[in-house]
Design brief:
The complex is a heterodimer of chains A (250) and B (342).
Chain A lengths: L3 E7 L4 H13 L2 E7 L4 H10 L4 H6 L3 E5 H10 L14 H4 L5 H11 L8 E8 L2 H5 L4 H18 L3 E7 L7 H13 L2 E6 L11 E7 L11 E9 L4 E5 L8
Parallel strand pairs in A: 1-5, 1-6, 2-3, 2-4, 4-5
Antiparallel strand pairs in A: 6-7, 7-8, 8-9
Chain B lengths: L1 E4 L5 H17 L2 E6 L4 H6 L2 E3 L3 H4 L4 H17 L1 H4 L18 E6 L2 H5 L3 E5 H7 L10 H16 L15 E5 L22 H14 L3 E7 L7 H10 L2 E7 L16 E7 L16 E5 L4 E5 L42
Parallel strand pairs in B: 1-7, 1-8, 2-5, 2-6, 6-7
Antiparallel strand pairs in B: 3-4, 8-9, 9-10, 10-11
The chains are: A alpha/beta (250), B alpha/beta (342).
């Protein structure tokens, strides 16, 4: 409860983790607010079906609130001039040049605040992916503020969880992105860091994942726990195994 | 969204761009050609002529080519569900022949254009037609281009807004030299450009348009001129597929005996991962391209003595990927095999 998980990928694509968390929380009966900035709804839907969850049905029964970034952006840019029901678009910072993500935060908060008839367990905020906000003109400070507000609202007040995906790289030249990622790393309770193999491309091992449990954030003065596994992605599943013990080798 | 990094002098990326458009003509797709430096009419006049099969399979006659183009049109139609999301020529056919061959020494005859509809966007013309327009907080040239694309998609019904339309066709969009000075963006000439977000906002909006319509798009960008690498990283994130062309002209590799048969290298930085969790694993090899008198071929990089199967079919068996940047395991790929041969 009240945990902030950071999904971080370097030189590879960590979106399989996003799909996993999405299906995981939906199956667990949580109310999920999914800010999907990078792909369309049908993409997530098709993958989720392979994992055994129907996003459309979840949306209809109100368990899933889906913000399709691409579509919202187009509505914003090409929509009619008049305000639709007086509600500003969650992505209005794109056209406003205001670099203020408050509208997005309001959207998240209203969708996760439980209404009287809700019977879902714990709210969850899922973001794919945060680096896109920077590409769209938000300043790093605005992005960090947004995350901070979300943490207060979702983790502390509503006792929910947040899962956020970011891209990063050690030799990245994108300083703003690195700033955001480093800052988030310090504040996360759990970091899942997906990387391509250092030794290069391999057919059977697609990459490695580092799981860092930030025990140092709690008051017990422990060190962070670090575990490293390697993984291979298949059509409906991802298999994890200890380093060097890929099925292809055994 | 296919993103091509241009080679230094733009020669080869132009070729790739024209192939994309030519394939569209032959398959009967609609075209949208945008450029700031060359008038689209001229671009279209220079599209390579399709090679009749007789060179390879001894089949003659107009009928053969007509049947072939229909076949391909059919296959696109059967696989049209996949075409809802943009990919470059992604139809999961099992035949080894995919796409058409083109003869670059000849230009496409005007009759072939008759059957397709094409739209053009030539920046200098557009600027003179409509001097003022509201900007969507991005560079005005990009904003116009976006408006234009959106209008065409909506009017021609590529986004499914018109249920009356029975024929579902695909719109191939080609944008040349985006990000260059001619589009009014200064990311190519200065380290601290005025508006670092114009290009990325444009690409995001374009991605949205492509996702909700039956279209595919190729963009060429003079990446070597963009000083701010952060922009390139963001742009890579926003594209489905990123291919870089590095030509040997003027570099020390030209005289390197390893590369003596080739004109340049192909770097595949990213491949699309749509609708699936899996990455398609295939043999990663270095890819090189060469411009023969009639054909532009992309092949695996061979050492000079080992030239036995460098016929253009060599790289067609499986998915081609380049070693360098994919070596760190970002080989992510969805359905369909992609052939880089033309």
């Amino acid at each position: 409860q009240g945990k902030f998980t950071l999904l971080r990928d370097t030189r590879t694509d960590g979106s399989f983790l996003v799909h996993h968390f999405l299906s995981f929380y939906l199956r667990a009966g949580c109310k999920v607010c999914f800010v999907a900035l990078l792909q369309s709804f049908s993409h997530y839907n098709i993958v989720a079906q392979k994992l055994g969850v129907n996003l459309r049905a979840a949306k209809e029964r109100g368990q899933l609130v889906f913000l399709e970034g691409l579509k919202t952006c187009l509505d914003l840019l090409f929509g009619e001039e008049e305000e639709q029901s007086g509600q500003p678009s969650p992505l209005q910072f794109i056209s406003e040049n205001a670099s203020n993500l408050k509208a997005l935060f309001d959207f998240v908060r209203t969708s996760l605040t439980p209404t009287g008839s809700d019977s879902w367990k714990g709210p969850v905020l899922l973001v794919d992916d945060l680096s896109v906000l920077l590409s769209l003109g938000a300043t790093p400070v605005a992005v960090l503020d947004f995350i901070h507000y979300c943490r207060v609202a979702v983790c502390s007040q509503l006792k929910g969880n947040i899962v956020v995906l970011v891209h990063s790289s050690e030799d990245s030249e994108d300083e703003e992105n690195e700033l955001v990622v480093n800052s988030l790393c310090h504040h996360s309770d759990l970091i899942l860091w997906v990387e391509g193999l250092v030794t290069g491309f391999c057919k059977d091992v697609h990459g490695q994942i580092k799981i860092i449990r930030r025990a140092s954030l709690e008051l017990t003065a422990e060190q962070d726990h670090l575990q490293i596994y390697q993984y291979k992605i298949q059509d409906k599943n991802v298999t994890f195994f200890a380093r060097g013990l890929s099925a292809a080798l055994l | 969204l296919v993103f091509t990094e241009e080679d230094k002098y733009g020669l080869y990326s132009n070729l790739l761009y024209k192939y994309f458009l030519a394939e569209g003509v032959v398959c009967g797709h609609d075209l949208f050609v945008a450029s700031a430096k060359e008038h689209p009419d001229n671009i279209l006049k220079e599209l390579p002529a399709p090679l009749l099969d007789d060179t390879y399979r001894k089949e003659l006659g107009e009928e053969a080519t007509a049947v072939k183009s229909e076949d391909f049109q059919d296959s696109m139609k059967i696989a049209w569900r996949y075409q809802n999301l943009p990919k470059m020529e992604a139809s999961p056919t099992t035949s080894t022949k995919f796409g058409h061959y083109y003869d670059i020494s000849k230009t496409m005859s005007p009759e072939l254009f008759q059957s397709i509809k094409w739209h053009s966007f030539y920046l200098p013309e557009e600027l003179s037609l409509q001097p003022k327009m509201k900007t969507c907080s991005m560079n005005s040239a990009y904003a116009r281009l976006l408006q234009s694309i959106q209008r065409i998609i909506y009017q021609e019904g590529f986004d499914g807004s018109d249920p009356q339309k029975k024929q579902k066709n695909i719109l191939r969009i080609g944008i040349q030299s985006l990000g260059s000075m001619l589009w009014g963006d200064d990311i190519c000439c200065s380290d601290t450009p005025e508006d670092t977000h114009s290009l990325t906002k444009f690409l995001y909006a374009l991605r949205g348009l492509l996702r909700k319509s039956l279209s595919a798009c190729i963009i060429t960008v003079p990446a070597h001129l963009i000083q701010n690498k952060a922009i390139m990283e963001r742009v890579t994130n926003l594209s489905d597929m990123v291919v870089g062309l590095e030509s040997f002209i003027g570099s020390e590799r030209e005289t390197n005996p390893l590369y003596k048969d080739y004109h340049g290298l192909v770097h595949v930085h990213q491949i699309p991962r749509l609708n699936s969790l899996i990455c398609d694993v295939s043999d990663t090899k270095d890819l090189a391209f060469r411009l023969k008198r009639k054909l532009f071929t992309i092949e695996r990089l061979h050492l000079p003595p080992d030239l036995s199967d460098t016929v253009s079919r060599a790289s067609k068996q499986d998915l081609a990927e380049s070693a360098k940047l994919l070596s760190s395991g970002c080989g992510a790929m969805a359905i369909g095999k992609k052939h880089l041969d033309f």
